[in-house]
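Amino Acid Chain and Its Fold in Token Form
===========================================
Structure side: the spatial fold of the chain, written down as a series of whole-number tokens.
Position: the record begins directly beneath this header, with no further notes in between.
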Amino acid sequence: MSAIDDQHAGSLPVYSRTLQTSATRTAELLLTMGTMDQNTSMTNSELLAAVRRPLSPDAQIEVPASREEYEHVQEILEEKNVKYPRLQYDGWRKVAIIAAAPSPLHGKMVGELMTRINDAVKSMPGLDSNIKGRLSSSSDMSNTTIAGDTPTTRNWDGALEYSTAEGDILMVAVEVGISQTYESLRAAISHSVCALHCRVGITMCVKEGNRGTREPIQYYSTAQEWDTAIQQAERQLWTALRNNPYGPLIANGFICYGRINRVVVETFRQEDDTCPPGTLLEPRQSFVIVEAGQFVGGDVPSNLAELRLGDCIPTHILSGNTIAATPINFFSQEWFERSFGRSMLKTALQRIKDKSKVRAG
């Protein structure tokens, strides 16, 4: 059973309307999209209206939509050359998924998980260097699969692939959810496992606490003043991090990153080869790493009681079942706290930068 709070595992609304504003260049580009395709019947669709709204980093919302609506809006994004938000489509649930730009915490933890697993494999003694060299990582890759009556297009957060003469084999998929429902996170990793046939999926679900009153926009006369203020804020954040490794991180009298209420790491795997592509998997292993701002993962196995060498390198390439069952020990408290804390601080600092402006002229 999952260690995610019941409030995240239960019945959840498909389309969240609690969107926060963010004054970004992407938002400005999106707001101009209303001038395009005015003669098209889909122009005033709920999906297009949702895409036009600015999103906070890490935000992800789902909108009921047809595949045709998704393709229409995706064309508009491509024509505008907009990197974010990213648009995906779940053909099984008939929903379009709008994903905002990732925060430093999201992007860093995806990279850390992949690098940590990759390094653990490559440090194993007795494994041929040519075999080790065929394992590589990739991130934010778009994949379209056709199963059932509607194609599904999704981007995985990160993955480890093994290169062969016949092509790359997806071995381990990673998804990190911050401003994302648990149902959506499970759907994303289930797609990688059941539709793309990766050996094992790993998710990290992060829940940030309430930040209270947000810092107002601060204006500075010169770039030098701005830089000095940012440096002062960064020093305050480092002090806060040393005192509270899982927040809250406070600078200038405001909470720039809330206390971490919970971090849960889970693993997913197909029970058999007959698992339909649209299956919503239950986690095989579920571990609470952080609870109420405290590390509680001291008993978590370093391979999450799941990850083995045969999950990272195809078993037919290895010498036998014994070596394939060798655990890949990558998780540790020291690694997690260092990586997570620095990534949380970078996110807090980015929030301060987003609210700090130099007056024109």
Q: What stands out?
A: The chain has a mean pLDDT of 87.
